[in-house]
């Protein structure tokens, strides 16, 4: 008996165990009903025994009576439906169907109602048993309302955490992209360009491939800004940037805004002649955009000056000097009158 009391006090009472106890005391020792009542009173949960056929309450412990706010006198000969423990007859039928399909059920959850109309979420473990040819259901009920509310809050917190993590990941990706992208034109920025030049320079040194750099400067852009305003100047740069970006076809080619009105096109595995042809095409395409520039000395439209430099594995220059060679060629293009392409003599 001490072991039985300890088991019942220690945790959630399963229906099959109480069935054994009930059969033991009622079938074998019917005079020991008081001992059975003592045992179910030790359960930390609500325990109730009902007739399977009509649902009448036979026995209930104090925990059940306190939870449901009924005395034993009020419960006897009443059914769980008549005292409105279930929301409605349909709720009880669902419970009965569940237990009829098996001898016992565990963790069946439904809302149950006390005498004052208050409700709680009950987790029911129940077992069907037969005594002298009569079938009964012994049910152990635990209020899991707060448990489920806590679980719901935890799930909601987990969902919010995942959303926050996704948001932070997105913001990080945007920040990383912004750190490598020019905000005005959407092209790669100078930082990313320099990283790529370093990479392509090292690759060029390992292979026989050539590497070309095209540097482009919008002619008389300061005068354009002064004439048409900075907003129109920004719009002009975006149009030029878009045209340059559309001029490259390979995924390995890179167009970047170097600063102000200067752009750089990085062309891996591209020789001098091919790079010069591409630079000439870019220059013509930009002039063909016909962006009005009335005060330009070289055209009625926006034009560009272009410098080209091509390198190979025999190049003695360090990596950080490559841009300078294209810049010097660009300086010559401007010195020769602008709106033209000049290739560095390396």
Automatic annotation (TrEMBL):
This is GGDEF domain-containing protein. The chain crosses the membrane at residues 6-26. Pfam families: GGDEF (PF00990), PAS_9 (PF13426). SUPFAM superfamilies: Nucleotide cyclase, PYP-like sensor domain (PAS domain). It comes from the Bacteria. InterPro entries: Diguanylate_Cyclase, GGDEF_dom, Nucleotide_cyclase, PAS, PAS-like_dom_sf, Rev_trsase/Diguanyl_cyclase. Gene3D superfamilies: 3.30.70.270, PAS domain (3.30.450.20).
């Amino acid at each position: 008996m001490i072991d039985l009391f300890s088991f019942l006090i220690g945790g959630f009472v399963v229906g099959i165990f109480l069935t054994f106890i009930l059969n033991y005391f009622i079938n074998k020792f019917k005079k020991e009903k008081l001992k059975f009542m003592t045992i179910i009173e030790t359960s930390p949960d609500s325990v109730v025994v009902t007739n399977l056929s009509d649902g009448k309450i036979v026995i209930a412990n104090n925990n059940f009576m306190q939870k449901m706010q009924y005395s034993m006198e009020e419960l006897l000969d009443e059914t769980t439906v008549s005292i409105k423990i279930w929301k409605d007859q349909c709720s009880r039928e669902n419970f009965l169907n569940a237990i009829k399909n098996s001898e016992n059920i565990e963790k069946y959850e439904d809302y149950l109602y006390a005498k004052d109309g208050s409700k709680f979420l009950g987790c029911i473990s129940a077992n069907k048993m037969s005594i002298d040819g009569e079938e009964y259901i012994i049910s152990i009920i635990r209020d899991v309302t707060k448990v489920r509310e806590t679980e719901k809050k935890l799930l909601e917190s987990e969902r919010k955490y995942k959303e926050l993590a996704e948001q932070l990941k997105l913001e990080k990706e945007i920040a990383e992209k912004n750190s490598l992208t020019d905000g005005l034109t959407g092209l790669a920025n100078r930082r990313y360009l320099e990283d790529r030049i370093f990479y392509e320079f090292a690759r060029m040194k390992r292979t026989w491939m050539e590497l070309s750099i095209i540097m482009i400067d919008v002619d008389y852009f300061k005068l354009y800004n002064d004439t048409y305003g900075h907003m129109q100047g920004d719009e002009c740069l975006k149009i030029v940037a878009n045209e340059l970006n559309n001029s490259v076809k390979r995924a390995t080619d890179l167009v970047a805004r170097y600063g102000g009105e200067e752009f750089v096109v990085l062309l891996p595995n591209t020789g001098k002649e091919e790079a010069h042809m591409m630079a000439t095409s870019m220059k013509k395409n930009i002039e063909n955009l016909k962006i009005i520039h009335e005060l330009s000395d070289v055209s009625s439209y926006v034009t560009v000056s272009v410098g080209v430099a091509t390198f190979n594995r025999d190049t003695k220059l360090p990596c950080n000097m490559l841009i300078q060679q294209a810049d010097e060629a660009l300086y010559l293009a401007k010195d020769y009158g602008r709106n033209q392409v000049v290739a560095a003599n390396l």
